[in-house]
Amino acid sequence: MFKKHSIAGRVSSGMIVGLVIGIVMMLILPIFGFQGVSPFSLGTLIMFFLMGALTGFIGIFSRHPVFDFKMSWWFSGPLVGVVFMTMYSLLTFDTLESFMQSSLFSQIGFHSPFWAILDGIWIGALMSYIEMKVAGKGEKLPAK
Questions:
Q1: Domains in the chain: how many in total?
Q2: Average of per-residue pLDDT values in the chain
Q3: Cβ atoms < 10 Å from Cβ of 56
Q4: Gyration radius from the chain CA atoms
Q5: Does residue 141 belong to any structural domain of this protein?
Q6: If we measure between CA atoms, which residue out of 111, 112, 55 comes closest to residue 81?
Q7: 110 occurs within a structural domain
Q8: How much is the pLDDT for 77?
Q9: Which residues fall within 8 angstroms of residue 53, CB to CB, at 6 or more apart?
Q10: For the whole model, what pTM was predicted?
Q11: CB-based contact 118:46 (threshold 8 Å)
C-alpha cells in the first residue's frame, strides 16, 4: 500500500482499520436489536477510528519515552485497546449491559460489559500489527 514507510502511513492505516471495524460493528448491532445508526453506534465508530489513530502514533516509539522499556507492536496495541475499551465500557455501561444480555451472550455466560475489554486487546493488537506491516515502526520513520 505504501511504498515508503512513514508516520502518516501508520496513522492512516490505523484509521482505516478502525473505520472498517466500526462499520462492521454498526452492521452487527441490528442483529442484537439495536438501531444501525444511533448515538451508540456512531460513538463506537468514532472510538475505533481514534483508537487506530492513536495506535499509529504510539507505534513510532520503539522504547517508552519515560520508563525506557521496549514497546513492541504486541505490547503497545493491546495497551491502547485496554485503555480505550475500559473508557468505552464505563461510558456506555447501560447500553453494553443490555447488549450483553442478548440471547447469544447470555447463553455463553458473558454478562458483564467489561468483557468488551478483551475485544479491545485483540482489536488493538490487530491494528498495531497491520500498521507495522503496512507502514513500519520506530523513531526513524519519516513524517510523510
A1: 1
A2: 84
A3: 29
A4: 16
A5: no
A6: 55
A7: yes
A8: 92
A9: 11, 14, 15, 18
A10: 0.85
A11: no
Distance of alpha carbon 129 from alpha carbon 44, whole angstroms: 21
Backbone torsion region of residue 123, taken as left when φ is above 0, otherwise alpha when ψ lies between -120 and 50, otherwise beta: alpha
Each residue's pLDDT tens digit, 21-72: 999 988 988 887 778 788 888 999 999 999 999 998 888 887 777 788 788 8
Contact 2, 132 (CB under 8 A): no
68 conformational bin, left if phi > 0, alpha if psi -120 to 50, beta if neither? left
Distance, in Å, from the CA atom of 43 to the CA atom of 57, rounded to the nearest integer, reads: 21
Q: Which of 97, 61, 96 is nearest to 76 (CA)?
A: 61
Q: Per the structure block, which three cell numbers stand in for 52?
A: 487506530
In one-letter notation, the amino acid at residue 18 is G
pLDDT at 81 over 60: yes
Instruction: Let me know: does 74 contact 128? Beta carbons within 8 Å.
Output: yes
Query: Does 2 map to a domain?
Result: no
126 lies in which domain range? Answer: 7-135
